[in-house]
Amino acid sequence: MKKRFSFGLFAVLIVAFAGSAYAADYPTKPITLMVPFPAGGSTDVGARIVGAIAEKDLGQPIVVVNKAGAGGQVGWTDLARQKPDGYYLGMINLPHILTTVLDPERKAAFKAEDIVPIISQALDPTTVSVRPDSPWKTLKDLIDEAKKKRGQIPTGIVGYLQDDEIGYLQLAEAAGIELRKVYFDGAAPAITALLGKHVDVLFCTVADNYTQWKAGRIRMLTVMDKERAKFYPDLPTTAEVGYPTVISASTRGMAGPKGIPEPIMKKLQEVFKKAMLSKEHIDKLEGAGQPVKIITGEDFVKYYWESYKVAKKWVEYVRGK
Fold first, then answer.
1. Phi-psi map region of 157: left, alpha, beta (phi>0 left; psi -120 to 50 alpha)
2. pTM of the prediction?
C-alpha cells in the first residue's frame, strides 16, 4: 500500500511539473480563435480587437477564423471536438450557446459541459427600438398599444431563442402582451427590416443598435438592464419603468474545449484580461458600442451555469407551448 501511494504521488508530481513546464513554453505556435458567426458582427469585431492586442504578450499570432452556420451551432460543435491544448479557442455568446444545447429541436452534438468558459469580454443588454417616426415615444406607449392589438404588431427578433427573444418573452410575460414575432438571422437584416417598415419594433442589443442610433435612424424605448447604458445615458431601463425582472443581455467571451490544463487556462486568462483592460481595447470596443465586461475563472464558470438555468426556463417555456 505504501509503495503504491508513493508511486501515485510521484506520478501526480510529474504530471503537475510537466503541465507547468508546458505552460511556461506555451504557446509555441499560432492560436486559432474561432468566431461562430460571419465576419463583421459584434462578436467578430470583439474577437479581432482583443486578439490583435493579446498576441503581443503571447508572442504568437492569434488567427481569427469564422466558422458560421446554424446560428453558431456549427462553430461551437467544432470547438467542443478540438484537442484541449490551448491552441484552439472560440467565442461564445450567452445565453445563445446554452439555448442551442437545451433546445431538443437543435439536436446539438455537444453538451454545455463540453465547453469551458475562459473570460468574458462584453455584456451587451437588449434594447427595444422603433423608427424615429413611430407614434410610440415610450415603452408604456408600445405596451398600451400592444394590449389593444394583441399579436398584431410586427416585431423583429434577432435570432431564435437567443438573448433578444428571451428579453421579449420576459417583457411579454411581465406586461401581459403579445407581439407578432418575425425572426431574423442576425442584426443587420433585422435593422434593415425595421427601417424598411417591414416590422415596427425591434429587439436587439446595444451594440447592434449603436451605429443606427448615432445616425438618428432609430429611436430606443428602453434598455433591459438594472443600470442605464453608458452609451445611452438618457435611455430608461426596464427596471426604472416598472419591470425589474425584465433583464436580458448577450454576454460575449472566450471558451475552449473541456480539459485544457489549469496552467494554460491561467495563462490565457491573465493575458486576455491584461489585453481587455488596456486603453486600446476599451476605446476600440466601446467605439463599436460594446460595453466591456470582464469576468474570469470561477466567477465566469458560475455565471455560465447561472445563465444555463435562465436559458433552460425559457427553452422549456417555448417548447411547452
1. beta
2. 0.85
In this structure, are 90 and 166 located in the same domain? no
Contact 222, 244 (CB under 8 A): no
- State phi, psi for 166 to the nearest 5 degrees: -60, -40
CATH number for 132: 3.40.190.10
Choose one of 183, 205, 223: the last residue of a domain: 223
Residue 82: give its domain's CATH number: 3.40.190.150
- Predicted confidence (pLDDT) per residue in 131-156, tens digit: 999 999 999 999 999 999 999 999 99
In 3D, which of 84, 94, 111, 117 has the Cα closest to residue 298? Answer: 117
Answer yes or no: are the C-beta atoms of 163 and 205 closer than 8 Å.
Answer: yes
Share of the chain above pLDDT 70, in %: 93
Which has the closest alpha carbon to 72: 45, 36, 46? 36
Across the strands, what pairs with 128?
203, 222
DSSP letter for 236, please.
P
Please report the pLDDT score of residue 321 as a whole number: 60
CB atoms within 10 A of CB 116: 19
Q: Length of the chain, please? A: 321
Residue 36 lies in domain:
29-123+250-320
The answer to whether the beta carbons of residues 307 and 94 sit under 8 Å apart is: yes
190-217 confidence digits (pLDDT tens):
999 999 999 999 999 998 889 999 999 9
pLDDT at residue 12 tops 60? no
Give the chain's largest Cα–Cα span.
81
Q: CB of 31 within 8 A of CB of 59?
A: no
